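ugh finaly. both done.
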Amino acid sequence: GAAALHAARSVARRAERSVTPLVREGAVDPEVGIFLNRASDYLFTAARLAAKAAGQPELLWKQAKLDAEL
């Protein structure tokens, strides 16, 4: 379900963060980083679709206001 897809997305994001320095050093093809980024995007969208199909409400994140903004 949606939770498993979100978990998979977090793994893809972690892999992307791990690969980024290797791409910068030239040790890994940049296409690997691009693929991991696109995979993360896909998993996020798939998770939202799975949640909608299961009738789960979408929870919107609201950024907390800083004291300086009040």
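ok and the 2nd:
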Amino acid sequence: MRGVFRFAILLSLSGVLSKCTPALYMHLYNSTDEVITLSKTESKEVVTISPNTAADFSPMFLPGEQLLIQTPRHKWTYSLRNLFVPQSLYQQHLGVMRSFGRIDSRGRIFILAPPHEAGPPQEITQPTGFPVQPRTET
């Protein structure tokens, strides 16, 4: 009887967790040769990425919110709506969905295919909407 009770709890818990919205991230590789800082107009989240490294940031946004990416020489602004990645290009793990991208020295954001095994993300033919161009540049 005890085993049935544990199984019922486990089954109901897995049902609840399967309905949870997964955490959503973009793993952005910095190929600008400069340190970049990512922030959003309506959020306190700030992510700094050194040259030739990558870091996660959340592409979730509030209506009208913009993504700001700054280097010592540039300031690029993007609509977060433009960072819509096709679901087939997400790497999915328990409770986490991660896309992969690369920003170049002109501020263009390219989408990458998820890595296979322990390899790096792969360059691909860009889907519609990519590379994302900055809306403003200074």
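summary for the 2nd one i guess: The helical segments are 2-18.
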